[in-house]
Every structure is written in structure tokens, then in C-alpha cells.
Amino acid sequence: MIKKLLTVSIALALATSTGFVFAQGNTGAGKEKAASCAGCHGEDGNSTMPGFPKLAGQHQGYLVKQLKAFKSGERISPMMAPLAMGLDEKSMEDIAAYYAGQKVSRNPAPALPADDEDDDKPAKTDEEKKAELASLIEQGSDLYRNGNISREVSACVACHGPYAEGNKPAAYPALHSQHADYLIKTLTDFKNGARSNNRENVMHMIGKKMTDEDIKAVAYYISTMK
């Protein structure tokens, strides 16, 4: 019961928060306007490059919020800012509606990157690598669902849902099937304060209490969620 404390407390706080209301965009117009986004995010919002986020199936309100943040400078990105500057609010709604209507693709089976191996130690066998990856994903699963009470790390499930489907009324993003590399970068940016455009800076408050291993574990786990 005590292990669920962080999940329950933050969920109760969110229950009293005010949701966001966004106008519906035109998906047909959004597809045309999103053509310039395909190079990084994929034609249907399923980026094949792990450093760029998948946008397919993401909540419209969340996408509009991020585009506005890029445009205003609230969220810093030398790549996205110039693109967002050329969009009016209707275009943002149309693009967001298009991506929200697409289906996010599943990721291939995860694998530990080669740079995780220590050159001074004997190479790990395939079985050792498999066991290490399974342990990492199990650690990420526990952190996602239960948090870490000793370090006051809140459970991800409270805001992002049991299946990482997010919270549409509150404009909390869906995370399932997102690239692990992108999630690691994003959580690290929240942890270091490089990104802060979220309500009451809650992600920084959570991220700064996470270890690098926590971030890696939960990112790998989320990337396997469907």
C-alpha cells in the first residue's frame, strides 16, 4: 500500500486540475501542411530515426501546446522554432489533428547499444545481454507503475496512464511505443532543466530525483509498451 503512495497523491492532485480545450483541426488540410515535417517525423508521424519523436497517435491538444511553445520560445529548439514561427493557430490545429488520427507503429525488439559494453571486460554473451536487458526493462516497469518511494520519484502511471496512453483532457502526452533514445533525451532535459514547458514544472521535479539508470530503464520499458 505504501508503495502506491506517490501514485495516489499525484493522481488526486491531477483530479482537481483544469483540463485544456482545443478546437478540432482539419485532418485533410493537416496532412498537406505536415508534408514538411515528414523528413524528421515520418510521412504518417512514425519517425524511423530514434532521436526524433513519433507524433502518430499523439493527443491533438498536446501537439498544439508544443507547437505554440516552440513558436513563443517557451520550449527551446533551433530546429523546430523556425518551422513553428510560420504556423498560425489554425495550421497548428490541422497538423495536430492529422497526426492524432494516425496509428503509432510498434518498435522492434529493444537491444542494448554497443557503447554500453566495457572494452576492458570480456565481451558479454548473447544470453548475458538478453538477461541484462530483461532486468533493465523489469526495473523500468516497476518505476513506471510504482515510482520510487525512497527517492520520492512519482510513478509515471499517475499522469500517463496504465498503458502510457496519456491524458487527453489534461494534454499529458501518450508515451507508448515512443523511441527509447528520444525518451532518454527528453527525461534528461527535464532533469537538467533544459526543458521546463510543463505544468508547474512537475517533470523537472520528478526528473531531478531520477538516476541515469532510472531514466534509461523507464525509457526502454515505455518503448516496448503498445
From TrEMBL:
<keyword id="KW-0813">Transport</keyword>
<feature type="region of interest" description="Disordered">
    <location>
        <begin position="106"/>
        <end position="130"/>
    </location>
</feature>
<protein>
    <submittedName>
        <fullName>Cytochrome c4</fullName>
    </submittedName>
</protein>
<keyword id="KW-0574">Periplasm</keyword>
<feature type="compositionally biased region" description="Basic and acidic residues">
    <location>
        <begin position="121"/>
        <end position="130"/>
    </location>
</feature>
<keyword id="KW-0732">Signal</keyword>
<feature type="domain" description="Cytochrome c">
    <location>
        <begin position="135"/>
        <end position="226"/>
    </location>
</feature>
<keyword id="KW-0349">Heme</keyword>
<dbReference type="Pfam" id="PF00034">
    <property type="entry name" value="Cytochrom_C"/>
</dbReference>
<dbReference type="InterPro" id="IPR036909">
    <property type="entry name" value="Cyt_c-like_dom_sf"/>
</dbReference>
<keyword id="KW-0249">Electron transport</keyword>
<dbReference type="InterPro" id="IPR050597">
    <property type="entry name" value="Cytochrome_c_Oxidase_Subunit"/>
</dbReference>
<feature type="signal peptide">
    <location>
        <begin position="1"/>
        <end position="23"/>
    </location>
</feature>
<dbReference type="InterPro" id="IPR024167">
    <property type="entry name" value="Cytochrome_c4-like"/>
</dbReference>
<keyword id="KW-0408">Iron</keyword>
<keyword id="KW-0479">Metal-binding</keyword>
<dbReference type="InterPro" id="IPR009056">
    <property type="entry name" value="Cyt_c-like_dom"/>
</dbReference>
<feature type="domain" description="Cytochrome c">
    <location>
        <begin position="25"/>
        <end position="103"/>
    </location>
</feature>
